[in-house]
Design goal:
By secondary structure, this protein is mainly α. Helices cover 59% and strands 0% of the residues. It has one domain (2-117): Lysozyme, CATH 1.10.530. It has six helices and no strands.
Length: 118
């Protein structure tokens, strides 16, 4: 499922898998403290901003979550011109974030550790 969604949206598979691992540890029922849901911990408002019109509970469905999460990750990747930490910053802090913050820096370090272990 990750491979299919990543391919559809042009996200490099290694980045897609690492983001899902950091976000939810591959748990489709994960829920974040700020209302993020599912495998990619996408916020319902973020998904709606991309055109999602379903329910919050439907975002727990792995295929649905990956579709909208990968769409958002693809936008982050594009805006970062393919730069790994720039992609992570924009996925974590918003597409128009410019400066790496401590949370996004730690997030990028986790992704780099996962990628180094591959």
């Amino acid at each position: 499922m990750i491979k299919k969604a990543a391919g559809k949206h042009g996200v490099p598979l290694h980045i897609a898998k690492a983001v899902v691992e950091v976000e939810s540890n591959f748990n489709p029922r994960a829920r974040g403290s700020a209302g993020e849901v599912g495998l990619m911990q996408i916020k319902p408002a973020t998904a709606r901003g991309l055109g999602y019109s379903g329910s919050v509970s439907a975002l727990y469905d792995p295929e649905t979550n990956l579709e909208w999460g990968m769409k958002y990750l693809a936008g982050a990747h594009e805006r970062a011109d393919g730069d790994l930490c720039g992609t992570i910053l924009r996925y974590n802090a918003g597409h128009y974030a410019k400066r790496m913050n401590p949370v996004s820096r730690r997030y990028c370090q986790k992704v780099q550790q996962i990628l180094a272990a591959l």
